Amino acid sequence: MPNRLPGRCPVCNETMEVTSLHCPACDTTISGHFATCKFCQLSEEMQDFIEIFIRSRGNIKEVERALGISYPTVRGRLDAAINALGYAVDAEVIDDAGRDADFVEAPDTAGAGSGSPPGVPAAAVSAERRREILAALSKGEITAQEAAARLRQP
After folding, report:
1. How far apart are CA 39 and CA 76, in angstroms?
2. DSSP letter for each residue of 88-136
3. How many Cβ atoms from other residues are within 10 Å of residue 86's Cβ?
4. 90/82 Cα distance (integer angstroms)
5. For residue 20, what is the enclosing H or E element?
6. Which residue did the predictor score with more confidence, 109 or 57?
7. I want to staple 106 with a disulfide (CB 3.0 to 4.6 A). Which of 8, 84, 113, 121 is the partner?
8. Which residues pair with 30 in a beta bridge?
């Protein structure tokens, strides 16, 4: 197996540039200045983590088992990889079941005194309301200030 292309300079840690490509089948060589992909610029450890994450189809429990690390460590490494690729990490955390992490299962009180529809915990209603407000913001139906004000309302 050939060596991995280093994405970062081992001396100064700046992004490397590819200046030559070679086809072993037809012996063609192309010279120039080529940028490496975002993934090539990640550390080998981070590339390996992403490969395991993809092979596990994003199932964090499988990543935990494959690497022998805890859920918070998997999340931390995933957040670091997302940041290293140049993307912002969402503040809203979703658990493995696709629910907001701040959604707390509560005993079904049939909405008694909570203002929630029967059978729906109050936290689920607020999470749904938050999604509606953010959707309206992304569609340009409300301003950021209006969204912030609505999100602060109980």
Report:
1. 18
2. PPPSS-B-TTSSBTT-------TTTTT-SPTT--HHHHHHHHHHHHHHH
3. 8
4. 10
5. strand 17-22
6. 57
7. 121
8. 21
Of the candidates 13, 19, 12, 53, the residue with the CA atom closest to the CA atom of residue 36: 19
Tell me the pLDDT tens digit for each residue of 78-131: 998 898 888 887 755 544 444 444 333 333 333 444 444 444 444 444 777 888
Query: Position of tokens 């009180």?
Result: 109
Whole-model pTM: value is: 0.48
pLDDT of 64 strictly over 80: yes
Determine contact, residues 62/28, Cβ cutoff 8 Å. no
* Residue type, position 18, single letter: V
- Beta pairing partners, 100: 94
Q: Quick one: which of 72, 15, 64, 62 has its CA closest to 43?
A: 15
Contact 79, 89 (CB under 8 A): yes
DSSP state of 5: P
Tracing tokens 């012996």 back to the chain, one arrives at: 27
CA distance 17 to 6: 9
**What's the CA gap between 123 and 105, in Å, rounded?**
8
Work out the percent of the chain whose per-residue pLDDT is above 90.
21
